[in-house]
Amino acid sequence: MKLKFKLQPHQTAAVDAVIDCFAGQPWHNPLAIQTQTAPDRAPALDLADGDIFGNAPLSLSPTQLLSNIQRVQRRQNLPVSASLAGDEVCPVNLDIEMETGTGKTYCYIKTLFELNQRYGWSKFIVVVPGIAIREGVDKSLRITAAHFAEIYGKKARCFIYNSRQPQALEQFASDAGIHVMIINTQAFNAAGKDNRRIYEALDAFRSRRPIDVLSACRPILILDEPQRMEGKKTLSALAHFTPLAVLRYSATHKTNHNKIHRLDALDAYNQKLVKKIAVRGIAVKGAEGLNAWLWLESIELSQKAPLARIEMEIKTRSGIRRALRRLQAGNNLYAESNQLEQYRGYIVEHIDAISDSVSFTNGQILRAGEAVGDVSDADIRRLQIRETVRAHLEKERQLYPQGIKVLSLFFIDEVAKYRDYARDDEKGDYARLFEQEYQAQVDALLAELPPGRGDWRDYLASIRVDCTHKGYFSVDKKSQRLRDPDVKTRGEDAGLSDDVDAYDLILKDKERLLSFQEPTRFIFSHSALREGWDNPNVFVMCMLKRSNSGISRRQEVGRGLRLAVNQRGERQDNPATVHDINVLCVVASESYRDFVCGLQQELGSALSARPRKANEAWLTGKLLIGPHEETPVTPEMAKRLYKYLVKHDYINELDDTLTLSWHTAVTQNTLAPLPDALAPWREAIIALLNTLFSEAQLPAIEDDRRLKINPLNALFDSAEFQALWAQIHHKSVWRVEFDTPALIRQAVQAIDTQLRVTPLQYTLSGGEQTEMLTDELLHSGGGFRQTPHGTVRLEGQAIARTVRYDLPGKLAAATALTRRTLVAILRQISPHVFALYQQNPEAFIAGAARLINEQKAALSVENLTYTLLDECYDRSLFIAGQRGQDLSRAAVRLQKHIYDYAVLDSGVERRFAEALESCDNVAVYAKLPHGFAIPTPLGDYIPDWAIAFREGSVRHLWFVAETKGSDTALSLRASEAYKIACARRFFAALNKESADVHYTVVSDFQQLLDTAL
């Protein structure tokens, strides 16, 4: 399998943040940058050709560089740096915060290509804290080489530094192309003989010191996980490279420098860049008078009443054994166990599928995932393995038809528990338990599913139990047996391993493990392996280890957050379905509540750098980026906004933090109207306030046991629904033919009439010491009081002279139009409008790009055509839609819906469903599954509802409807309005081909009924 890569907006934003910090730096031809001596070093570095092709020095003054950095920070509403954060390593240190799993390595590889293209810099050194990351970076550079060559028309030469092979440095220094050296810190800051060679004059290197050659190149250092390189010895050693700049990439920066980009855990989740998290906890519960075993595995829905899957002890002729029983209300556990006395009085009174609980007539309540009775540590481990297998098979059944292979990962703390060489079969306890639990569940499934259909059942039947699991551990060099890794005992990496052979196996098998042709689906590895497990198709993780291992829950979860790929290597990141497919299940050895509470606390701590208070002081000076212009929040605007938030209970008056009401109103599009002066900035204000931290914003972590099969009922096969489905199930492709002269005309008109550019300005804030100081005032921060402040405009002409922009190039990157088209637009706009560029270049570029893109969108809808394909969506979409639904969010059992339940996302949808249920004219309806999508130039669009009315009761029988809180175009976001306009075109094309389906956007059912009647 070959993984496929594509440009993604969040990664482009991270790249642009770095590139824009150096705006105004002239491009230098690398062939012209030659030096013969390293800075402040002697003797001369006499290479074969007498030259070192290094990076051009910075031409920007510190003031210009700081101004660029501040502009980038304001654009993202990050804290604005007062000065350059220089240190002993380098005067220029830029922090780029990116959450695990969002493509950090891809970002800095693309960044180095952009730095070369824009400024001519070509020498880069990636510094990593250990071997695992080093090997991963090397592999990433190699597998993305063709992708970046296609974009930039060139390749980067990369190599891992080896003290025994200094000849690679010769090409690094003497060639003008892009060169990337990867080096781990141990290669230059450790005391070993090999590690000192970088500072020694080597005979094999013509009596030169490698460090002198490297420093003469003025390399740009890229630090991957810099928080693990903050030791005094490491920092002193990094200074020997004399870097031009240092770019620091991490999800968890420990020391802050000039932070220019932030994509933290909250951003990554809200933008759907990582998997959603679900947990299967195991809780041990005490039950008075019960010493026997009782385990509630799950609640199943059926066509009749719910069933409880309970494991209990059964008396047999050969003794007492444990067995799984499907029980319903009224079943007596005493009778089911063949009269085991400890179960007397345990009669199932009620099974609640919504709360996932079983209540007994004796008052005891058991919840899914709880075990009572004589529960040992071995029992917990067996249950974890069982739940992992069960979660894996459930996900595999759902994702196999979509061409996505599911992998499950066990982390254990001792190799002997997987591979025991003292036994004849060499199987450890965990391997033995796994094979027993796996075989039992597979046998049950194979008996349940009909054979011979060439589907998942046949795939399942084709894999032997001993071939489907594999161990990835360190290997003893002499005996070739698996062994425990060497674990560090000191420092921040205590309890972790950096063994190269285990990582080599993981990385070597990465793509092969993603193929259905490879039978391995369950992987056992050592919990000390911190990095390396970045395989995107890990869907289930199980921690079979001691709780005091020293690895946090966030670290554990981070190993499986990357978005999955299918058999074609395509990333499954469609916004409409990304969190239906990408759900990481963590099987914990503690209760769901305890695991989630601990993980939420860790996430909250990791987000501590986010501001929390929406007070006037914080709001003042923040940048609002609107559709056509941007403006800083003035003190008067801040005062009005703060009063609005207080009035509508969107912030807590005591501490100025955002409330749950704010987040609910934003999600459901029910915000109270803003004051007139702020109303044009509605979306910008929402975006600004959502950068604040609040507990309500933390990712929702689901209970994986609540994700149930939602049964399709007889209405799915009814004549009315099948007739409706036959009308709408066509797949299609779209085509847009641009009229370039028309685009130029409309863009010029839009820019001339709508572009507004606010001059660059800054807010002056002052303060003075209070007259009487007390110890209490000093400790509370009240020793100073704020004095009146004002806003000062910068002279645009001065800004334009100090920073040079490639205006057509910037607009081309933002609009995907050719430079020729953009130059034509710029030449035709009015001179007084073009003069706004001098006032605020960044705002001019952003505003012009938005207006051009709006005209592109408008023209694309006008010129958009759909062609229906012979291929149609299959009924299997609805079968896949049965699985993985949290029915605690569902309404009551429905009578006219094709599923028994519907998971509804808002009050608007709930009211709409209630009206459908109560209307006699409605025959059947469906909440359309996420797999049913209409393609558009802005991505797939999934309508909400498909409705069939009773024949003879209305004028129009078949409807596809979109429900919104408001049906006015102004209330819809631009992308939503655009996709809806495309959907109208699709259904118009559908109806030309003999269909008769009406597509409409409504805010309530009455609007739909009025159209039907």
Question: What characteristics describe this protein?
Answer:
seven-stranded parallel β-sheet; single chain; globular; 1013 residues; alpha/beta
Helix-strand layout with pairing:
Layout: H1 9-21, E1 34-35, E2 52-53, H2 62-75, E3 93-98, H3 104-119, E4 123-128, H4 131-143, H5 145-152, E5 157-160, H6 167-174, E6 179-184, H7 186-189, H8 193-196, H9 210-216, E7 220-224, H10 232-239, E8 245-250, E9 258-263, H11 265-270, E10 276-280, E11 283-285, E12 294-300, E13 307-316, E14 319-327, H12 333-336, E15 348-352, E16 357-360, E17 365-367, E18 370-372, H13 377-399, E19 407-412, H14 429-448, H15 456-461, E20 469-472, E21 474-475, E22 482-483, H16 500-508, E23 522-526, E24 538-544, H17 553-558, H18 578-581, E25 583-587, H19 592-606, H20 616-619, E26 623-625, E27 630-632, H21 635-647, H22 660-667, H23 682-689, E28 702-703, E29 707-708, H24 719-728, E30 730-736, H25 740-754, E31 761-769, H26 775-780, E32 784-793, H27 796-802, H28 807-815, H29 819-828, H30 831-834, H31 836-839, H32 841-862, E33 864-872, H33 876-880, E34 885-886, H34 907-918, E35 922-927, E36 945-949, E37 958-963, H35 974-992, E38 997-1002, H36 1005-1012
Parallel strand pairs: 3-8, 3-9, 4-6, 4-7, 5-6, 7-8, 10-25, 10-28, 11-18, 19-23, 19-24, 20-23, 24-25, 37-38
Antiparallel strand pairs: 1-2, 12-13, 12-18, 13-14, 15-16, 16-17, 21-22, 26-27, 29-34, 30-33, 31-32, 35-36, 36-37
Kindly report how far apart the N and C termini lie: 54 Å
Structural class, from helix and strand content?
A: alpha/beta
In one word, what is the shape? Answer: globular
Count of helices? Answer: 36
- The number of strands is 38
Helix content estimate: 25-40%
Average pLDDT across residues?
84
Which strand order does the major sheet show?
A: 5-6-4-7-8-3-9
Radius of gyration: 32 Å
Q: Characterize the largest beta sheet: strand count, sense, and whether it forms a barrel.
A: 7 strands, parallel
Strand content: 15-25%
Which spans of ≥5 residues are poorly predicted at pLDDT below 50? 36-50, 777-781, 795-802, 967-971
Quaternary structure state of the chains depicted: single chain
